[in-house]
């Protein structure tokens, strides 16, 4: 397997930027890792806030059965603004796709030298 393929697989399957670091493109790799990590942490924080809100509503209601959980989850998801989730998901996906393509391109260029 050549360097370009290994770098693309690292960026696609491990983390965005891992392929760049493998190719010794440290600054670009670190930038991709940091941006991806920040977006991922933000998405996880928002998801945890939502889960905590649902859990608090369930505890306040006192009755915890499957129908109550489903009703609370449905009500909570209809109340939230999904725009930050959508933007975060798009940024993370774009970063991941860029990392795969760019690490493959850099690896191919290094192979020509």
Element order, helices and strands?
Answer: HHHHH
DSSP, total strands: 0
Helix/strand/pairing class, anyone? mainly alpha
The Rg value, from CA coordinates, equals: 20 Å
Major sheet description: none
Q: Based on CA inertia axes, which overall geometry fits?
A: rod-shaped
Average pLDDT, all residues: 88
Strand content: under 5%
Number of helices: 5
User: What percentage of residues falls in helices of 4 or more residues?
Assistant: over 70%
How far apart lie the N and C ends? Answer: 17 Å
- Residue stretches low in confidence (pLDDT < 50, at least 5 long) are none
Assembly type of the chains comes to single chain
Task: Provide structural commentary.
This protein is mainly alpha-helical. Helices cover 85% and strands 0% of the residues. It contains five helices and no strands. Helix 3 (26-61) crosses helix 4. The radius of gyration is 20 Å and the shape is rod-shaped. The two termini are 17 Å apart.
Short description:
The protein has 113 residues and is mostly helical. 85% of the residues lie in helices and 0% in strands. The protein has helices spanning 3-13, 18-22, 26-61, 66-79, 83-112.
Features of this protein?
113 residues, mainly alpha, 0% strand, rod-shaped
